[in-house]
Fold this protein.
Amino acid sequence: MDNKYKPTKNHYLKVMKRLLNEVFQINDNVTLVEWKKQLPESFMKYLYHGIKFMPKAFDHHWEYTAEELSEWFNQINQIGNMISLLTPREFMNIFPITKEFDGYKHGVKDYFFTMNVIQNMGIDHVIDKPYEFLFDYMNWDVQSYMCVWMTVVGRMFHAEFDVNIHDFSIK
């Protein structure tokens, strides 16, 4: 039997809402630190589903309003704040490093590159710069998430400074 089931953005969103409801039943004003401490499994599941959800839900071709971009940024910021409470070891349990080992040959990030970054920062030290960490982390789900992050941040920059990429020309 060929199993070709792939979760959709609605599947991820449904799980994320259920996890938030669990947390809010305990405390309406729970902080991320309290959430991780009181319901660590729920915290990790939400982070996992949040990172998987973003690339499925964000449409790179859609022209989002400033308010919509702000909402996307808030969601991305929430995920970054969650990651900043983890150590690389904890993060690796959710999103294992992709087992590709020929990065040196092709001049790209691979397992060894990512492990070197993690060893330099300390595998059991809290991730104090989540997006720098994610840029250097080799996992296809994380890389897809970072594409959304870069797009949202870039579009917010363009909206903030009223910049149109087509106004630039190479001379």
